[in-house]
């Protein structure tokens, strides 16, 4: 809990502009499809979370966290902030998951996808106004399909 408080306090002092998308224009729901390459995450299952925040400060914090930080603090953050909506999957290499709904709610200020890869890296995607997204799970990272 002290780390969360310190992170929120530090974030409040930072001049972080956030993504260019206006949060008032975020969709009320995201339809998320997942496509894992056969060698995704080095051939190991990967946890994927879509996290939507209705609190702007928490949303900015989420946009700066790596996936490793998110998954290490997931329970703590979800209990500390009622503004979070989390939709999660455990994806196997080669698995395809059709469009699943991740609720964003009218109040959404930020939406972030995290993939818990074994390799170092951010493994984070900040979602914008596009309500239908396909997340590509590659060998060493994630990307949004064009």
| Alpha-carbon Rg, integer | 15 Å
The overall pLDDT, averaged over residues, is: 84
What letter string, H or E per element, gives the SSE order?
A: HEEHHEEEEEE
Uncertain residue segments: 8-21
Strand order of the largest sheet: 4-1-7-8
Beta percentage is 25-35%
Gap from first CA to last CA: 38 Å
Please give the count of helices. Answer: 3
Helical content class: 10-25%
**CATH-defined architecture:** Sandwich
**Topology-level CATH name:** Immunoglobulin-like
Please outline the major beta sheet. Answer: 4 strands, mixed
Q: What is the CATH class name?
A: Mainly Beta
The oligomerization state is: single chain
Taken together, the total number of domains comes to 1
Would you report the number of β strands?
8
* Alpha-beta content class: alpha+beta
CATH superfamily descriptor? Type VI secretion system, lipoprotein SciN
Shape: globular
């Amino acid at each position: 809990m002290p780390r969360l408080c310190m992170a929120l306090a530090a974030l409040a002092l930072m001049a972080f502009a956030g993504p260019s998308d206006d949060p008032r224009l975020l969709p009320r729901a995201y339809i998320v499809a997942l496509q894992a390459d056969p060698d995704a995450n080095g051939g190991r299952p990967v946890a994927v979370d879509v996290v939507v925040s209705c609190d702007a400060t928490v949303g900015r914090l989420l946009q700066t966290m790596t996936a490793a930080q998110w998954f290490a603090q997931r329970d703590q953050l979800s209990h500390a902030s009622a503004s979070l909506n989390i939709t999660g999957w455990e994806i196997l290499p080669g698995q395809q998951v059709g469009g699943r709904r991740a609720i964003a709610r009218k109040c959404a200020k930020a939406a972030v996808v995290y993939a818990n890869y074994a390799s170092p890296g951010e493994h984070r995607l900040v979602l914008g106004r596009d309500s239908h997204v396909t997340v590509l799970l590659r060998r060493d990272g994630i990307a949004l399909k064009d």
